[in-house]
Amino acid sequence: MGADSPNRDTALEHLRHLIDDVKIAMLTTVDPSGALRSRPMMTQAADDDGTLWFFSAEDSAKVDELVRRPAVNVSYANAERGVVTGEEGGTHGTIDLGGRARLDPGRDH
Fold first, then answer.
1. Is 59 helix (H, G, I), strand (E, B) or coil?
2. 64 in a domain, yes or no?
3. pLDDT digit string (tens) for 18-43?
4. Does residue 106 form part of some domain?
5. DSSP code for 37
6. Percent helix, strand, coil in the chain (nearest 5)?
7. Domain range spanning residue 59?
């Protein structure tokens, strides 16, 4: 583990806490034409390493999009509570996360 591991662990724990009450995320993928497509997805779990788990039908358009281009964005919003983000600690109602999707058809979470 690197020297910044405690900071990363703290940030991941903070993220899990912030999204704990917000079960529905907006998952954004890129379709074959290059257009962005967003849809609501229920978060199934958030692992200690920051991996977020969602279920989807294997024959869905989003799975096809992820196979072609695994770059995704996941957004959470909680207008009632507000979410503390940013280095200044300002209160905002959204969290946006960018990353890469990985399909795991055998996962039983």
1. coil
2. yes
3. 788 788 899 999 999 999 999 999 99
4. no
5. E
6. 20, 35, 45
7. 5-100
Distance CA 109, CA 78 (A): 25
Query: Model's pTM, two decimal places?
Result: 0.74
For the chain, how many structural domains are there in total? 1
Classify residue 13: in a domain, yes or no. Answer: yes
Could you tell me the two tokens for 21? 């009450």
For the stretch 48-70, pLDDT in tens is 888 899 999 999 999 999 999 99
Compare 58 and 84 and report the one with higher pLDDT.
58
Structure tokens at 44: 């199934």
In Å, what is the CA distance from 38 to each residue of 29, 74, 76? 6, 9, 12
DSSP 56: -
Map residue 98 onto helix, strand or coil: strand
Which domain CATH number covers 56? Answer: 2.30.110.10
